[in-house]
Q: What sequence folds into this?
């Protein structure tokens, strides 16, 4: 067994990889392939925790020594009017999402699962995001870019989507896809030998 547990991020998202590097550069990436179906009536907060856990479990099962690793799974959804907005599958669906979000406030939820050493921890964060009123031309312009189609709610706050956002209440990085400050604190408690109190490693 190595001195420290191996850290694995169960996500192909370059945004999550970038944010995790704020905590440590010493991790590997392994993409999980899981179904993202949810039972009817699942709340957005429950949804992100369930999906984060599924992703982490799928990657943990692939490890030759699951006792000697920590797997981080994460998932993000956008919710408005009680409806979860996933990744748009078409230009028309993207335009519909942008119209629903235009001039209004919505909630972004990000869930995180930590698995390793026979232990499991789940948590979630949420933030409120308000959009500027978007004209049809603005919606058409943004939907014509490649950015919306791999992002929950059909926009990326760290990219061109920043031009749509009027205000954020809560953790910006929750909106980006990984609540890194909360994650650092959870990791320090989950694996104190790997994540000491004095700072990132």
A:
């Amino acid at each position: 067994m190595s001195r420290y547990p191996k850290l694995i991020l169960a996500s192909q998202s370059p945004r999550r990889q970038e944010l995790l590097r704020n905590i440590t550069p010493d991790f590997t990436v392994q993409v999980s392939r899981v179904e993202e179906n949810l039972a009817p009536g699942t709340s957005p907060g429950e949804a992100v925790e369930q999906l984060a856990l599924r992703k982490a479990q799928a990657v943990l099962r692939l490890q030759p020594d699951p006792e000697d690793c920590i797997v981080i799974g994460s998932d993000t959804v956008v919710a408005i009017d009680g409806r979860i907005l996933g990744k748009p599958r078409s230009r028309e669906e993207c335009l519909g999402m942008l119209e629903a979000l235009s001039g209004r406030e919505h909630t972004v939820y990000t869930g995180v699962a930590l698995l390793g050493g026979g232990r499991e921890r789940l948590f979630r964060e949420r933030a409120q995001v308000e959009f500027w009123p978007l004209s049809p031309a603005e919606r058409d312009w943004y939907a014509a870019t490649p950015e919306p189609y791999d992002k929950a709610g059909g926009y990326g706050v760290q990219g061109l989507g920043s031009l749509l956002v009027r205000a954020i209440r809560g953790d910006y990085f929750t909106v980006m896809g990984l609540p890194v400050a909360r994650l650092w604190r959870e990791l320090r408690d989950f694996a104190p030998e790997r994540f000491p109190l004095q700072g990132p490693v």
Notes: The mean pLDDT is 92. The longest helix spans residues 44-60. The radius of gyration is 17 Å.
